What we know:
The protein is α/β, with parallel strands linked by helices. It has 10 helices and 8 strands.
Amino acid sequence: MTKKITVNTLKEMKLAGEKIASLTSYDASFAKLQDEAGIDVLLVGDSLGMVLQGDKTTRNVTMNDMIYHTRLVNNVRQRAMLISDMPYQSYTTAEQAVKNAKKLVNEGGADLVKLEGGEEISEIITAIKNSGIPVCGHIGLTPQSFSTSDGFKVQATTQEAAEKLKQDALAIEAAGCDCMVIECVPAEVASDVTQTLDIPTIGIGAGVDCDGQVLVLHDMLGITGKKFRFLKNFLEGNDSIAEAIKAYISEVKNKSFPAAEHKF
Ligand code: KIV
């Protein structure tokens, strides 16, 4: 029986300097390939609203969507840890957040739930954590804050904004987060936050010094055709999807991805 990745494994990896490789996952076929390739963390992201449902933002994704896709991924994963996104407006009060987090765990099979936001959601994070559910934070670019994709820009580009990001990171760590996604911020800022925190950081467009990396699966396979600076098409030069996923994991682990050309 393969040993499952847990929150404690991620913390040990941070201490040992071993990078965490993560990708989004939304269905059983891809999840099986990802798990067999050795991915550490599968993220059922609410990016599925854009990638699978064709919307301009993540805001129309529902709890039922998230439970459904989390269940599909959970059905086949053996080793990878499973994080599921709490969708827009599913955590506006502590009571609602705990109820919905429990659904993602009990009905979907998630190990952790992920919420977007800084200090202002500290109480919500603590309430979920106190209910026994591990939490992943998400700071920097937080797509649920935008009603159109026009707002998707690099964050924390001034000293003041970088300091605020760090304060947010510390606040949500203190509130009970077990790990944290940092999205689209300058590499130096993410590096500073990563060194400041005890919990692991998982970056997307945040440089190589985060404790791990995550990409949207359909972006790194070139399916969405997005050309963001922080992306790389791993299907180019590889003969199959399985080989592309293995190449991604290997480049994250040996720190060759993200390279200087991918950082802000
Ligand atoms: O929804 C998602 O896919 C995410 C990643 C981009 C980190 O939150």
